[in-house]
Amino acid sequence: MEIEILSVSGSKPLGKIRVNEDATVQDVKEKIHQGLKKSMYPERQSIKLESKGRSLKDETTLKSLNIGDGAKLYLQDLGPQISWRNVFLAEYAGPLFVYLWVYQRPWILYGDVTSAPGTVASVAAICWSLHYAKRLLETVFVHRFSKGTMPLRNLFKNCSYYWLFTLYIAYHINHPLFTAPCNTCLYVGVAGFTICELGNLSIHILLKNLRPPGTKVRRIPKPDGNPFSILFNFVSCPNYTYEFGSWFFFTVLTKCLPAGLFALVGLYQMSVWAIGKHRNYKKEFPDYPKGRKAILPFIL
Prior knowledge:
Blueprint: E1 2-7, E2 13-18, H1 25-36, E3 45-48, E4 72-77, E5 81-83, H2 84-104, H3 107-110, H4 119-141, E6 149-151, H5 153-173, H6 183-210, H7 238-254, H8 257-284
Parallel strand pairs: 1-4
Antiparallel strand pairs: 1-2, 3-4, 5-6
Helix pairs in contact: 2-4, 2-5, 4-6, 5-8, 6-7, 7-8
């Protein structure tokens, strides 16, 4: 059957394509890339039923949308794209490099430094490095992304957030005049940080196992026997709960105000994401557990 493609901006006709009756939106994108707009690869396209409507999902069939021969679809250019995997790698490699750069070469920021880093500064550098090394490894071996790409312009915003906050925190903790907290803070901070990092990793592995490779299957996440997964009985996004916990205990470990600010800003952003996911879970699954909160047990 023949489909007419129009531009979202001004509804300008771009041409026509031919697809099978059982074609999906992804097939439409491929046809547009091959014929009408060779410079516009499928990830860069948004296909809509109306010029101001919502983007259609790639797996949606034209038949399910009652689209037949002679129908019209609207095309929006999303701009240059970058894969989510590459975005994550860029976001997390920066903090690892920047923090160790400040820790190992303090003279770049502070001038001549004669004293060696203290115990707390060294432990903080280890914790920071392990966290972002874990994130990089998870990006490569654990995470499965429901969306393939994001606009390239967002890469600079995301990287700026992580990289500049890293420089802000590293500057204070590795400063020659940094005052280390008591040993109790050190021990409690390291213990809590370690537990939360293991919990975060456990949840990411559980979520990976919920979705078979190459699919977009969604299921209700539930505890799987791993003690860290018990948090699913209380919140929808325990990975965010553990993530906030890691930075809370990192703040206890260092008693560094910028680290605490980083934890709070992260909590705010993750709460926004968690509330959205919690709402989607309840909408998608009628039997979704009613007692769960989004991110903070019994609170939020």
